[in-house]
Amino acid sequence: MTTPTKQHLTLALLCLSAWATSLPAQAQFQKPEDAVKYRKAAFTLMGSHFGRMGAMVQGRAPFDAAAAASNADIVANLSRLPFHGFVEGTASKEKGGAKAEIWSERAKFDEAAKKMQDEVAKLAAAKPATVEQLKASFGPAASTCKSCHDSFRNE
Ligand code: ASC
Questions:
Q1: How far away, in angstroms, is 138 Cα from ligand 1 center?
Q2: What is the pTM of this model?
Q3: Atom of ligand 1 nearest to the CA of 50
Q4: How far is the CA of 141 from the centre of ligand 1 (A)?
Q5: What's the CA gap between 121 and 133, in Å, rounded?
Q6: How many A from CA of 146 to the centre of ligand 1?
Q7: Which of 83, 95, 105, 112 is the most exposed place for a label (fewest CB within 10 A)?
Q8: What is the CATH code of the structural domain delimited by 31-87+106-155?
Q9: DSSP string, the chain
Q10: Which is the closest atom of ligand 1 to the Cα of 47?
Q11: Residue 154: CA atoms inside 13 Å, Cβ hemisphere, count?
Q12: pLDDT in tens, 98-118
C-alpha cells in the first residue's frame, strides 16, 4: 500500500465533511432538548402566522387579502421545519408535549404531517379574495392541525 499523500488526505476530509452534512436530522442536534426546542420554535412561528388568518376567519380581524396571502405563504414555507425536530427519544409526558405514539406509529404521524403540508400548500396557492374563499381553504388546513394534535399531542 502506498503512503497517503496530502491530496489523499484532503480528499478523505472532503468526503467526511460531505457525509457529515448529509447525516439524518437527529445527528444535527447536540442534545435531545435542542431538537424539542427546534420543533417548538417552528410550531410557534406556524401558529403565529396561521392564527392571523384564523382571526380573519373568525371575524376578530378584518379580512385583508394581501396579509392572508402572505401569512399562508409563510406557513407553507415553514411547514416542513418542525419535523426535523422529532428525533427518537424525545417523547414527553408534559401538556402540549409529543406523545410516544409519534415514534411507535411513525408512518401514521408522517402521513398526518404530509396531509398538513399538502393543505397549507393549497391554502397558499388559493390566494383568497374574500373571507369566504379564505374559509374554504383555511378550514381543511386547520383540521389537519387538530387531528394531528388529537392523536399525537398530550392534552
Ligand atoms: C391555530 C393553531 C393551531 C390550529 C388548530 C386548528 O391557529 O395554533 O394549532 O390553528 O387550533 O384546530
A1: 10
A2: 0.84
A3: 7
A4: 9
A5: 15
A6: 7
A7: 95
A8: 1.20.120.10
A9: -PPPPHHHHHHHHHHHHHHHHTS-GGGG-SSHHHHHHHHHHHHHHHHHHHHHHHHHHTTSS---HHHHHHHHHHHHHHTTGGGGG--TT----STTPBPTHHHHTHHHHHHHHHHHHHHHHHHHHH--SSHHHHHHHHHHHHHHHHHHHHHHB--
A10: 8
A11: 10
A12: 999 999 999 999 999 999 999
**CA 43 to ligand 1 center in whole angstroms:** 10
Res 127 pLDDT > 60: yes
User: Nearest residue CA, atom 12 of ligand 1?
Assistant: 146
Residue 122 has a pLDDT of: 98
Locate cell 374559509: which residue?
135
**Average pLDDT of every residue of the chain:** 90
Q: How far is the CA of 107 from the centre of ligand 1 (A)?
A: 22
- pLDDT tens digit string along 45-78? 999 999 999 999 999 999 999 999 999 999 999 9
140 lines ligand 1 (CB under 6 A): no
